[in-house]
Amino acid sequence: SFSFSTTKDTSLNGYYIPKDTCVFINQWQINHDPELWKDPSSFVPDRFLSSDGSEVNKQEGEKVMVFGMGKRRCIGEVIARNEVYLFLAIIVQKLHFHAMSGQKPDMTPEYGLTMKHKRCHLRATMRTNEE
User: Fold this and answer.
1) Which residues does the record give as heme binding sites (predicted)?
2) Is 22 assigned a ligand-binding role in the annotation?
């Protein structure tokens, strides 16, 4: 979590916040805001694609807050976003993923320090040139 301390007595949306109060950003709420996201609790990776599905919609990706904000925003954000994009692009390009026979992956989120899906097993095979 990202936290900041107030430098002076202030108020925000009618709430009084004294000087030196530690304030946390509620990233979960921002990333699940129904005004920013259609059906925010559902796993919908397509929401980050253009309307025709041909490319990544970078404006939608920028709405996800994982690197903080303001002057304490993570300085490694640009390289981290690029690394994750390249890593996933290479994996998807090289491998084909299959559910184990008789099992369907359950993407119901589990909440804790981070949010993740329930544990599941997948089988990965190398893609052929025809795929």
Assistant:
1) 74
2) no
